[in-house]
Amino acid sequence: MTIPTLPARRPALRAATRTGAHRHLLALALVALAVLAAGGCTVRLISDYDETIDRSASELQKEMDAFLTDMENGQDESVMYGVNRGFYPYYATEVRAVLVRAQAHPKNEQSVAQYELMLDSLKELEEAHRGDEGLEDEGTLPVEAIPVFRDLFNQAWGAIIHLEVAKKR
User: Fold this and answer.
1) CA 148, CA 60: separation in Å to the nearest integer?
2) DSSP string of the chain, one letter each residue
3) pLDDT digit of tens for each residue in the chain (169 aa)?
4) Does pTM top 0.85 for this prediction?
5) Is 99:116 a contact under the CB 8 Å cutoff?
6) Domain limits of the chain?
């Protein structure tokens, strides 16, 4: 007994194989096209660089360093809290102005958190400067604390500036 061959099915099988191969090539081409299209897109995980924030942070760092240097080198009344009381609200206002600008940028939570920490540090500095109750205006910063505060503020401003400059890339 001979097994009948089905010659009619072979061409259909070849056509089905070609169709499968074509589908595979088409899918591969679509994946390649999607990869090329996605390659032209950039994903932003943090806000863009802001030159005004960078410049303001550098100025605020300089102002704080100058203030602490004055407190370190000053004498008598010039280092008392009462004489320097106005520095604290002025400086807080300047920091908040930069904070508001940072909040205006999407994906800028890291910078915003740093400015909020800076405001907390300013409060701590003011508390260290202020005298005891009833003698607030006569308070002075302890001489040994000034370099510590300077290092802390310079480190914090350095981190803020470093993050802002890194956004240029």
Assistant:
1) 18
2) -PPPP-TTHHHHHHHHHHHHHHHHHHHHHHHHHHHHHHHT----SSPPP-HHHHHHHHHHHHHHHHHHHHHHH--GGGGSHHHHTTHHHHHHHHHHHHHHHHHTSTT-HHHHHHHHHHHHHHHHHHHHHS-STT-GGG----TTTHHHHHHHHHHHHHHHHHHHHHTT-
3) 666 665 555 555 555 555 666 777 777 777 777 766 666 666 666 788 889 999 999 999 999 999 999 999 988 899 999 999 999 999 999 999 999 999 999 889 999 999 999 999 999 999 999 988 888 899 999 999 999 999 999 999 999 999 999 888 7
4) no
5) yes
6) 8-43, 51-166
Write down the residue that tokens 């009344």 correspond to: 77
